[in-house]
Amino acid sequence: MKFGTLYSYWSTDWACNFDGYVALVKKASEIGFDILEISADHVYHMSVSELEKLNEIRKSHGLIFTLNSGPAKQYDLASADEAIRQQGMDYFTHILEKMPILQADTLIGAIYSYWPCDFVTTDKAAAWERSAQCLHIIGEAAAQRGISIALEVLNRNETYIMTNCEEAVAYCKKVNSSAVKVLLDTYHMNIEEDDIPAAIRYAGPWLGHFHVGENNRKLPGMNNSIDWPAVAAALHEIGYNKGVVMEPFILSGGAVGDAIRVWRDLSDNASPQQMDEYISRSLDFLKTTFA
Ligand SMILES: [Mn+2]
């Protein structure tokens, strides 16, 4: 397994420019991560020359990029509006075209719809029909480039499309593309699944990416609300050898705090140095527990 973190841990703002990513590549590799999970939307907007430069820096630090997408509503592949679905298809096609520049082969997130969901429409059957058709086409384009797509199972407050592993596997079967797999996240699973290790075993070969976080999105190992040894055993049982990426959110405020609904500080008023210590300790915990 390869261990990573989402880029936004240190900030309350989703924004991150080229210089910001260069600093994060250095920091993540110094801490000992294999993966830095970056924003697919930032890749969409970055120029080819910036991406080429960023890739050189990534390579020199021996890091892998995975791309995380919480698409805006204007790119909703489940939309009843054909023009919006087409906009989404164009958006993801452009991201897939840019990923080889970063030698990135994993695109993940709620790309079957948009995030966070506002629940204005919740016609699930119709949304499945529309988005699965779009994802079949995107999945085939990804497969041609050797890219895999992992669809994130979210909790009920963030989507209506897929909220447990069983639904996600059924959805992937409907998409019917070898590139399209499932992403399970312990934070969401803790809310929705009856039995987290059983859900991991159910996913089996469909599991394409894995997110880790405590019940309140604290860093893995910070409060042990999740039975981490049981999670690790289930991953070993299915022979999982891909990304294990933490998505810690412990700072309140800003666009990140609002989107994740962090309404109080969960960091114990950590200084920047303490933030580094927390994540370094959590990475050690994961490597030990998942070894
Ligand atoms: Mn996640």
Fold and architecture overview:
Pfam families: AP_endonuc_2. With 291 residues, the protein is an alpha/beta fold. It has one domain: TIM Barrel (Alpha-Beta Barrel). The protein is built from 11 helices and 8 strands. The protein has helices at residues 18-31, 40-45, 48-60, 82-98, 124-144, 165-175, 186-192, 196-203, 228-237, 254-260, 272-290, and strands at residues 2-6, 35-39, 64-69, 106-109, 148-152, 180-185, 207-212, 243-246. Helix 9 links the parallel strand 7 and strand 8 (243-246). The longest helix is centred in the middle third of the chain and has 21 residues, at 124-144. The termini are close together. It binds manganese (II) ion. Manganese (II) ion is lined by residues 152, 185, 211, 247.
Short description, anyone?
With 291 residues, the protein is of the alpha/beta class.
| SS summary, helix count | 11
CATH topology: TIM Barrel
**Bound molecule types:** manganese (II) ion
- Indicate the percent of residues in helices: 40-55%
CATH architecture: Alpha-Beta Barrel
Q: Largest beta sheet, briefly?
A: 8 strands, parallel, barrel
Look at the helices and sheets and give the structural class.
Answer: alpha/beta
- End-to-end C-alpha gap: 8 Å
Shape: globular
Beta-strand content bin: 5-15%
- Would you report the number of β strands? 8
* Order of the strands making up the biggest sheet: 1-2-3-4-5-6-7-8
How do the helices and strands follow one another from N- to C-terminus?
A: EHEHHEHEHEHEHHEHEHH
The low-pLDDT segments are: none
